[in-house]
Amino acid sequence: MSVNPDVLIIGGGVVGAACARQIALAGHQVCLIEPETVSGAAWRASAGILAAQIAAEQEDPLFHLGLAGREYYETTAGPLKDMTGIDIGVRLHGILSVAKDESAASVLKDRVAWQRQQGHLCDWLDRDELAEQCPWLSKAAGALLAPRDGSLDPLKLVEALRADAKRLGVTLAQDTITALTRSGDLITGARGKSIYSAAATIVAAGAWSGRLEGLPRPISVEPIRGQMLAFPWPQGVVEGIFLGTDIYMVPRNGEAICGSTMEHVGFQPVVTSEGIRGIEERARALCPALRGVASTRSWSGLRPGTPDGLPIIGAEPSVRGLWYATGHGRNGILLAGITALILDRLMAGEVLFEEVGAVRPERFWSR
What we know:
The chain is of the alpha/beta class. The protein contains 8 helices and 20 strands. The strands form 4 sheets. The chain has an 8-stranded mixed β-sheet. It has a 6-stranded mixed β-sheet with strand order 9-3-2-13-20-19, covered by helices on one side. The protein has a 4-stranded mixed β-sheet with strand order 1-12-11-10, with no helix packed on it.
C-alpha cells in the first residue's frame, strides 16, 4: 500500500497528534503514523502538569514558550470538546513548589521576584502562610505559588487531538516506521510495512526519533526513563498540585499521581523496586497524610531528552523536506500544542517566537 499526503508525521503521540491537527487546519493533507506496538511512550506515562512558571529560570528560552503552551490549552480545550465531545481536563488552579529549607527558599524567592518584574502573577507563601493554607504538607520554609499553572489529562488530550485531526481529514495509520526514504538531497517520505511519500516529513517519534534509518545525521535525542505511581488521594487533603524535592503530587480521578525518576537506562520502560520505593519515600515526606497509605499502581515511560534539555523544532538544514518536532523531555505535554503552531508557521516561512532560535536543530552541529 502507498500513501501520498502533503505532510507525513512519524509519531502519533501528543506532539505528533498536535502537529497533525494544526497542519490540517492550515489546509494540508496529512498522514499521522503511530507505531503498531507502543511500550514506554512518554505521553502515556505523563502526569500532565502544565508548569509554565514553577520551574522557570531567568533567561530560560522555554519560559515564554511554556506560557504560550499553557495558553494554547486554555483556548483550545473548549473547541476540542465542542468538536470531539472529549474533555481534556484542563485545570489551571495553581501549583505550589515547596522549599524544604532556607537555601531552597532563597532560590524560589528569587524566581518569584524575577517573574513579578516581568509582569507575571507569582506569589511567595512564607512558612506560616503555607502551614495555615496547607497543613497536610510537611513543615517547610515556604512555597512558590504559580496560581495560573495546572494540569490536564494527557490520555484525553491525545484522544481529542487525534479525533479532531481525523475530523479534519488526517489519515491515521498504524505502522512501525523503520527508515526515511530519500532522492538526492530530498527526503521523499518513509517506509515501514507500507511506503509513504510526502512533500514534507516530520519526525515526532519521541525517544525513538534517532532510531530511524536514513537520517542525514544523528539526532541528539535519548530516552530518559521516568517511573510513576499512584496513591488513593488521602483523606483530609484538599486537592492541589504540590511539588517538593524531586517529587510531585497531582490529583486525577480520585488518585494522587506521584513521580518521577530521571534515569538513563536506554529503552527499558519498566518499573523497579528501587525507583518506586524512592518515589514513595519522597511523596510521604512531602505529604505525611500518605504515610500508611499503600500505592495502588505503578508505571514508567521514556522521555525524549536532549543534551541541553531543549526540544528540537524546525527544518533539517542539510536536506529538503525533513522537519523535527522532538526532544521535549519533561515538557512534552506543556509544549505540544505550541510546538505544532511553531512548526506550522516555520513550514510557511514564518517565525512565531524569537525563542525558536534556541530550539533549532542545527544548534548541535554548528558549534
